[in-house]
Specification:
Blueprint: H1 4-25, E1 34-37, E2 42-45, E3 49-53, E4 55-58, E5 66-71, E6 76-77, E7 84-88, E8 94-103, E9 109-119
Parallel strand pairs: 2-9
Antiparallel strand pairs: 1-4, 3-7, 5-8, 6-7, 8-9
Length: about 140
């Protein structure tokens, strides 16, 4: 049998437990109110330069735009704070990854990654040079 003092103590413990649960569940959650797209993967044919073309939508801070190299040999991103930028110093036979990150108006950030594959074109050989005179057509 409980007396009034015990009942009050149990109620107080229940209220404190409820308060703690409310306190921990009241965390601030930031929703994404912007998106970013680093573009489609790119194949560059035996060239030391390429172009990154990103797109941002929604409410975002234009000053937060940032291209960064994720993988591959060292390159230069000429305009890392613009949605469109040239990359230089690409080496054939390598695959590079670049990330585009922006900060949304709500404070969160979003990132997307694009891959740049630098390939060398295949070498073709047409065979040995053929010398001929105007009277006889060559055999090819």
């Amino acid at each position: 049998m409980l007396n009034i003092g015990q009942t009050t103590r149990l109620s107080l413990r229940f209220l404190i437990g409820t308060f703690v649960i409310i306190l921990f569940s009241a965390q601030k959650v930031r929703a994404q109110n912007c998106t970013v797209n680093a573009g489609i993967d790119i194949v560059v044919c035996d060239d030391a330069t390429g172009t990154l073309m990103g797109v941002a939508a929604g409410i975002y801070n234009p000053a937060s735009i940032l291209w960064a190299q994720v993988s591959g040999p060292a390159t230069t991103i000429t305009s890392p704070s613009n949605l469109t930028s040239t990359i230089t110093g690409l080496i054939p036979g390598n695959v590079y990854q670049f990330s585009l990150t922006i900060t949304c108006g709500a404070g969160g950030s979003v990132t997307d990654i694009v891959e740049v594959d630098v390939v060398s074109p295949p070498a073709f050989t047409a065979g040995a040079d053929v010398a001929f005179c105007n009277t006889t057509p060559p055999n090819l």
